[in-house]
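Here is the promised in-class demo. Please do not try to memorize the tokens; focus on the logic of going from shape to residues.
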């Protein structure tokens, strides 16, 4: 039987009595980072774990649910699982079966829907050419702009495919997404999107590309289904940290919030998701269509492509980038990395708390990277736990 996630109100009524002995770990956040660590600590190491999330659900940003029409949607935007790590894939396979899925994205440019990442078909259809793979390499070389040292997101693209493709596919999209020109952003942002000289139109090239067969939330439920794991939702950890005994905290929320923004706020880019259901079986040809140059939204994703669900209706999500709102993307600029380094110093000086995950380490991580980071953190914690003495264990509830 699946253990029902606990609501904040359950605290008054029952399980807390049996928990007065305290928890070995207080885990803040029930996303990938928090859930992987909870699972390992409880199932593998026999620790007692309390997982707290201020949202009304588990899964963090990867949470999925059925909408009013009965279509499985991702409320926090489309999440496509892909990894080159066999360890990560094998680990998650303990909690879910998979449905093979290769994501495809088209970009709406000059009145056409063209494959992105840019490949030989993108170039041929945009310019009305008939180049071979070899010729397109020559084409890129002829239009590429020499850049002495690639530093910014603009440098990455113009040095590979020239200014016209940069302007049509990257400049507008990046300006919308980040509210900054690519010339003001680290190279890492656009370096994530490769350029291809073949006809491969898959968005990702990873070895493992698949979606959890019954969705992410079912997978998280299976991870957290253990008698040593208690889950408390709708609860900020600050509300309970001083009166539920715990020995070590694993924190997966924003690192600047943990330290009360003492050096100022770390800049994040946010998104507003506008969900729609349409009375038609299919809305668009592929999982995601990007709109680099038109409209206020960056892209539209249609979930049935991604989940494989069959349904007479279909649900889509529009993404509108925002300066304010939930923290989604750390803004990769040197001054922000510098500000993060100040918080990272304080992290080093907070021995009773381990910081894991995308927000706690102020890094753009994909889901598989967060799983890998959490598994590595577990190994480190185990090493530390072996050395733990009865004395340090008595520091209940302190930071
Ligand atoms: C729009 C979008 C699309 C994405 N698409 C993909 C994709 O296609 N493929 C991919 O691999 N990755 C994708 N990602 C990245 C993916 O979402 C993350 O890698 C992953 O969710 C990070 O897991 P996490 O546990 O570190 O953080 P989160 O999932 O953010 O979990 C942190 C949790 O901590 C909780 N929390 C924070 N503060 C507190 C507090 N004070 N008290 C209690 N709880 C707290 C939050 O409520 C949250 O649930 C995408 C991200 C976004 C924003």
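The designed amino acids, position by position:
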């Amino acid at each position: 039987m699946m253990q029902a996630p606990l609501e904040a109100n359950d605290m008054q009524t029952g399980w807390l009595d049996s928990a007065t002995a305290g928890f070995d770990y207080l885990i803040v956040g029930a996303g990938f980072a928090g859930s992987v660590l909870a699972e390992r600590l409880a199932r593998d190491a026999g620790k007692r774990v309390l997982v707290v999330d201020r949202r009304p659900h588990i899964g963090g940003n990867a949470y999925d649910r059925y909408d009013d029409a009965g279509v499985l949607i991702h409320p926090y935007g489309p999440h496509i699982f892909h990894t080159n790590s066999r360890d990560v894939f094998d680990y998650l396979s303990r909690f879910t079966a998979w449905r093979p899925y290769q994501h495809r994205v088209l970009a709406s440019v000059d009145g056409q829907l063209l494959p992105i990442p840019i490949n030989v078909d993108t170039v041929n259809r945009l310019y009305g050419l008939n180049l071979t793979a070899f010729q397109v390499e020559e084409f890129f070389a002829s239009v590429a702009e020499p850049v002495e040292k690639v530093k910014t997101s603009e440098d990455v693209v113009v040095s590979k495919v020239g200014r016209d493709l940069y302007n049509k596919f990257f400049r507008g999209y990046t300006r919308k997404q980040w509210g900054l020109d690519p010339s003001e952003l680290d190279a890492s942002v656009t370096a994530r999107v490769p350029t291809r000289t073949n006809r491969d139109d898959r968005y990702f090239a990873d070895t493992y590309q698949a979606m959890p067969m019954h969705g992410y939330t079912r997978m998280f439920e299976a991870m957290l289904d253990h008698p040593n794991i208690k889950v408390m939702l709708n609860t900020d950890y600050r509300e309970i940290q001083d009166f539920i005994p715990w020995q070590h905290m694993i924190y997966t929320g924003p690192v600047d919030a943990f330290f009360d923004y003492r050096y100022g706020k770390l800049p994040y880019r946010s998104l507003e998701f506008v969900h729609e259901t349409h009375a038609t079986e299919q809305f668009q040809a592929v999982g995601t269509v990007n709109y680099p140059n038109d409209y206020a939204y960056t892209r539209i994703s249609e979930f049935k492509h991604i989940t494989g669900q069959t349904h007479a209706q279909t649900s889509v999500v529009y993404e509108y980038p925002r300066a304010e709102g939930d923290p989604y993307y750390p803004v990769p600029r040197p001054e922000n990395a510098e500000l993060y380094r100040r918080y990272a110093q304080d992290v080093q000086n907070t021995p009773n708390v381990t910081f894991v995950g995308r927000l706690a380490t102020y890094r753009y991580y994909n889901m598989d990277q967060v799983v890998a980071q959490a598994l590595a953190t577990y190994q480190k914690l185990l090493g530390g736990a072996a050395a733990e003495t009865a004395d340090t264990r008595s520091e209940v509830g302190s930071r």
